Amino acid sequence: MSSVEGILYTVVARNKAVLVEYNATSTQYSQVVKTILERIPPNNSKLSYAYDRNLYHYISENGVVFLCVAKEKFGRRIPFTFLHEIKSQFFSRFPSVEELDTLPKNTILSFSEILSREMTHYSRDLSADPIRQVQGEISQVKDIMVQNIERVLERGDRIDSLVDKTNNLNTAAFAFRKRSTALKRKLWWKNQKLMAMLISSIIVVLYILYVNLFV
After folding, report:
1. Nearby residues of 18 by Cβ (< 8 Å), 6 or more positions away
2. Domain Longin, which positions (predicted)?
């Protein structure tokens, strides 16, 4: 486990492929990051995932994903302020997203120096910096959710397949309830017929006894 505090790893990706990354630790995050990248929707979004006592925060904008890994106890305010700063500097250096595919690889990889510098800066306690603190509070958004992907990684179940399984179970349950209702109705009518036959038989027997005794 890494002894590094604060922001541990940062990656910039596009079309689920890594453009540039920087790892401040010896821990490998590629498997979890790959899983997250595959699940990020194409529209602009912000989200946090929890896995193995780390939080994976990302901002997706204009098809580019900015993702960082930090300890859970580091919170979300500073990591998202950091991601906004990285996003701003990245788009300032590479304003045309479409040209990213044609740029020399070393040109984009040089951005790792900025990742390293900003990770070090934001991993410090920023409470002494009022401007940074206000920026961090503003960047806190209500739509940031924490999802635990530990079971997804361990079991390898796709979310869509889990939804299909749930829908199939709901359909089966509805069909079972429908069959049960029909069976109950059929048994009720059968009981009514038996009761009517029993009453009719009793009436006939009583009538015969009456005729034999009093007529």
Report:
1. 11, 12
2. 11-115
Q: What would you report as the CA-atom Rg of the chain, rounded to the nearest whole angstrom? A: 33
Per the CB < 8 A criterion, the answer to whether 57 and 76 are in contact is yes
Q: Is 149 exposed, middle or buried (0-12, 13-18, 19+ CB in 10 A)?
A: middle
Residue 112 zone, left/alpha/beta (φ > 0; ψ -120 to 50; rest):
alpha
CA distance linking residue 16 with residue 34, whole number of Å: 8
pLDDT in single tens digits along all 215 residues of the chain: 456 678 999 999 999 999 999 999 999 999 999 999 999 998 999 999 999 889 999 999 999 999 999 998 888 999 999 999 999 999 999 998 888 888 888 999 999 999 999 999 998 855 545 555 555 555 554 445 555 565 566 555 454 555 555 556 556 566 666 666 777 787 788 878 888 888 887 887 777 777 777 66
State the burial class of residue 50 (Cβ atoms within 10 Å of its Cβ: 0-12, 13-18, 19+). middle
Query: Is the pTM for the entire model greater than 0.70?
Result: no
Superfamily of domain 7-166, CATH level 4: Longin domain (3.30.450.50)
Domain boundaries, the chain: 7-166, 168-214
Would you call 51 helix, strand, or coil by DSSP?
strand
Three-state DSSP at 28 gives coil
- The alpha carbon of residue 26 and the mean position of all alpha carbons in its chain are separated, in whole angstroms, by 27
